[in-house]
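WARN no homologs supplied; continuing
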Amino acid sequence: MSTAALQSRRPEDKVGPGPGFPRVLHSEFIKFRTLLSTLILVASTVLVMVGFAALNAWGVGQFSEASKSDRQAAAAFAAQGADLTSGIPTSGIAFAQLIMGSLAVLLMSSEFTTGMARSTFSAVPKRTPAFVAKLLVVTVCAFVVTVASSFLAYLAASPILENYGFDIDLGTEHSRRLLLVSGIYVAAVAAIGMSLGTLLRNSAGGIMSLVGLFFVVPIAFQLIPGEFFEEARKYLPDNLFQRIIASAPAEGALEVWQASTWLGVWVVVPLVAAMAALKQRDV
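OK structure emitted
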């Protein structure tokens, strides 16, 4: 292009920084909801949560029937019966976190494996808005799906428990906190999964890293003897979650604010690393 042509270009002809954040967010939401993998994994989360709640409700009922012939077992069951029933709607969280975390990994890693990242970051050159938009979409989805699934699990488990003379009261402070914290926790796992997908840029590697962090490492730390591993178990994400929702903390456990802070660290550090890598590495 000649110098005269360059000088004649109007200011509005210059390439801008990209679309505004609301448009980027809307675009990411469209991509998210039109993916077949999203529908399958969300449906799987609902089925797992409802299925585990129904199974646990049946198990509590069977245990109550068996304890009628054992006075000591009956006393122990009566002492913890309320705690057992209050946790039934969220009894499938261990698997729900893996499913929603895997969904978050796929949401970002698929951008690189399919080549969509070139189009995405050509439209959003700064890259950070696209990352934040994806993060908002997947974490809000994880929160909503978890809470909604927990409520559906409650509806499925209630008739089963009523056959054995039990009920679940969602109106108690503990039950409400359990549902809310469970939704936030699964959203946090989704954020970690998206960070892994961004850093590794590989679906299988990101999902396996997620499984290792939330399933393999806790088991390994429990099997390996030593004070270091016993103390380190307190700071693993799942144990932090269990501490936050616990109605009665165990001796030597972290305070709720300490557990919440460390869980936040598990989320923030990978996110910062992912955003830094996304801006520096080529697509």
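Confidence is low (pLDDT under 50) at residues 1-15.
OK
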